[in-house]
Amino acid sequence: MEKTTRTMPAHKHIALVAHDNYKPELLRWVQEQKEKLQGHFLYATGTTGHMLSKETGLAIKSFISGPMGGDQQLGALISEGKIDMLIFFWDPLNAVPHDPDVKALLRIASVWNIPVATNRASANFMVSSNLLKSEVVIEIPDYEKYLADRT
Asked: So where does substrate get bound (predicted)?
């Protein structure tokens, strides 16, 4: 598929997700990075979003719980160019019933070329980058051209 570009805004749209065993770890990370996250638009799956908002006071748009379709809601926003970064503290040692949804979310983030952090170290690198506060041009699939070529 051919490529085109889109410009991520300086105020990023950041999705925050964590499996149950990693919710405390994500909460601790968000508390530590609260100053860097303020001023960006934050989204989360249901349980995680409500917990983070309550504990940190950050404004977070919460969707439904991941297993109930929240992962798919975030994936849809990614494919629409409405999410710029995904921070997903997933549990690599325990299978979850909605594992296909988790894989689909990670796959769609890769398809649309958005930065993904899956642990504390990668999340720290992402929010420490000068790109966090800047407009950033990324390559994405040229889906419009793909459709035009099919007609």
From this structure: 19, 23, 45-48, 65-66, 98
